[in-house]
Amino acid sequence: MPNPIALPGASVVITGAARGIGYATARAFLARGARVFIGDLDGDLARTAAAELGCSGGQVDVRSRESLGEFLAGVEPPVQVLVNNAGIMPAGRFVDEPDAVTDAIVDVNLNGVLRATKLVLPGMLDRGCGHIVNVASYLGELPAAGLATYCATKHAVIGFSEALRDELAGTGVTVTTVLPSAVRTDLVSGVKLGGMLPTVDPDVIADAIVATCHSRTAVVAVPGWMRSYEAVAALLPDRVVGAVRGRLTRQRVLRTLDNEARASYDERVRRDAGADR
Fold it and tell me: How many domains in the chain?
């Protein structure tokens, strides 16, 4: 296992960091002496957040390789830690999901991770040191009806992260997948996941992300006890797993979705995706 990343003075890049998990993660890295660079699709909000935090920040659209390249060009090299945190989570029946929104979920949640990783990886490999944290979701392990496309992207991020970690073995560059439960951000406003998905504060996820720079472990679930579900599920018949899953997540999102509470978030996602054009 490579040595821990020395955070004092290290350049840390965080996407989707103007609010929520990204904002909390930036604050946690700054508290440990890192040089933090935050990016967000909402450039004004990113700059406001950066001013509040005392770090650098600006606009970045992870759907665009050019935008990512321009953003990373403004980061004081070398990039030692990349946190791929940008993500969106529209909720509702898949059949009713506008194509533009489906495309946006895949482009932000999955392709954004691939693009940013590919841009920073050559430099890390040249130096023989670096750490990439991909913020997936426990819904990449436990599917939830009403979040089909979101779950698909998080499954993909988990697979990509684990495969890339194996590919990079022995190079000094590591990849960690973080699997948060439901987090108190606008991402889950109006969505009641319940069951075995407790709601946690962004600061809890942020601390777990920062800790991976020391442990450089493969997968971190927050809370950690959620990983026990997979071990137990692997030993049970499909019908039993299906019954348990049904009680925990199946139809829960669709049954309890509060469209009024999600209106502001969904409107922003649709606008950014161009679904209303």
Answer: 1
Q: Please write the tens of the pLDDT for every residue from 64-99.
A: 999 999 999 999 999 999 999 999 999 889 999 999
Residue 259 belongs to some domain of the structure: yes
Q: What is the DSSP string of 51-89?
A: HHHTSEEEE--TT-HHHHHHHHHTSPSPEEEEEE-----
- The answer as to whether 4 is a domain residue is no
Tens of pLDDT, residues 193-227: 555 567 788 999 999 999 999 999 999 998 665 66
How many other CB atoms are there within 10 angstroms of residue 119's CB atom?
A: 18
Q: Please give the residue range of the domain that contains residue 165.
A: 11-273
CATH of the domain at 209: 3.40.50.720
| 206 inside domain | yes
Give me 111's structure tokens: 């392709």
- In Å, how far from its chain's centre is CA 269? 16
Query: Which residue in 138, 150, 229, 265 is the catalytic one?
Result: 150
Task: Residue 166: name the closest of 174, 178, 158 by CA.
Answer: 174
How far is it, in rounded angstroms, from Cα 175 to Cα 160?
10
pLDDT score recorded for residue 200: 84
Provide the terminal-to-terminal Cα distance of the chain, rounded to the nearest Å: 50
For residue 56, list its beta bridge partners: 37
Token couple for 137: 């979701």
| Domain assignment present for 78 | yes
150 is catalytic: yes
| Rounded CA separation 215/254 (Å) | 38
